[in-house]
From TrEMBL:
A cellular-component GO term for this protein: plasma membrane
Pfam family of the protein (one): PMP22_Claudin
Protein name as it appears in the record: Protein NKG7
Protein source organism: Neomonachus schauinslandi
Family: Belongs to the PMP-22/EMP/MP20 family.
GO biological process: defense response to protozoan; inflammatory response; killing of cells of another organism
Native organism taxonomy: Eukaryota, Metazoa, Chordata, Craniata, Vertebrata
């Protein structure tokens, strides 16, 4: 149980850090032309002049929700390690539920962004591709899914609270 909980805490922390880095950086999409290079992220710099597309807003919202649920998952994992703060064996279960919810939000955010960017028209002289922030978003989704699985494993292998525990 301790190994699963420790690994869940590690993957949850890494997933949380990676989604925060992906959210805050501007290297989701890169375009290179004959005389220029351009990169963009989820937070356009000309926000006051141009309203972001709906898929950008959806990706922003879903990624923020994934970050919040991932943070709640990590907090419950931390409190499950401290007996006086834990909810009698249910910390890993709550953490698992929150991590799976965070993973679902992250996957949906990444699928929305990927499908919309993939379907945009291409110019023959401009090469476009996804960059490292985009891939870090996908890594965070996988890490949050691993966190949920490991937390569930910690819950299933842990002692069950019963009448005698009261």
């Amino acid at each position: 149980m301790e190994l699963c909980r420790s690994l869940a805490l590690l993957t949850g922390s890494l997933g949380l850090v990676s989604i925060l880095i992906a959210l805050s950086t501007d290297f989701w999409f890169v375009a290179k032309g004959p005389r220029f290079s351009f990169h963009s992220g989820l937070w356009p710099k000309e926000f006051h002049t141009e309203v972001p597309a709906d898929y950008i807003r959806a990706t922003q919202s879903l990624s923020i929700l994934a970050t919040l649920w991932g943070l709640v998952s990590v907090i419950f994992l931390i409190t499950s390690c401290i007996p006086s703060l834990s909810i009698r064996g249910y910390g890993p279960l709550v953490s698992s539920t929150m991590a799976f919810a965070a993973a679902i939000f992250a996957v949906v955010a990444m699928v929305v962004y990927t499908s919309e960017r993939w379907n945009q028209p291409q110019h023959p002289q401009i090469q476009t591709f996804f960059s490292w922030s985009f891939y870090l978003g996908w890594v965070s989704a996988v890490l949050l899914l691993c966190t949920g699985s490991l937390s569930l494993g910690a819950y299933c292998s842990g002692p069950r609270p019963g009448y005698d525990a009261l």
